[in-house]
Design brief:
The protein has 179 residues and is an alpha+beta fold. It has helices spanning 16-23, 47-51, 72-81, 108-121, 149-152, 157-173; strands at 6-13, 29-37, 58-66, 90-91, 94-95, 101-105, 132-135, 139-141.
Length: 179
Amino acid sequence: MHNSKIQIATIGGGCFWCVEAVFNQIKGIQKIVSGYSGGTAPGKPTYREVCSGLTGHAEVIQVTFDANIISYKDILVIFMTSHDPTTLNRQGGDVGTQYRSVIYYHTPEQEKIAKEVIKEVSPYYEDPIVTEISELPIFYEAEDYHQDYYSNNTEQGFCSAVITPKLAKLRKMHANMLK
């Protein structure tokens, strides 16, 4: 038996439903909470407010993981290869600052690793990576109906059209990391 080494990562790569669905498949992930971070509007934002693009918040997930099973670096590599980190404020049909590619670090070590991962994966992309790397500001948990969205709505049009193909790509690229 090993002592667990619990850590938290906060990342955003477009719609939080997509990013959450990807990390629900990964070994070592203990908990995922969809939410909002990085905005300037006062108070806890609502989904409607964040979607307006006026609050400055990004849709993000907060991932609790056991670093003895999966490293922070591996989480970031999976993240960087499961969305398009080269499009500014956009993922597919989702457009706006709330859909930006972002890594919010919790410690200086996480900041260092984030910069290293971006440098390592950059050659695999034709365009420059535009992923923001910032210290975690306040994280706000999203409304209950956003939590575990894909698992609860697999037949919904957006899920089958957008998320299911992302999961197929994940299975192909990171099969060794799957639960």
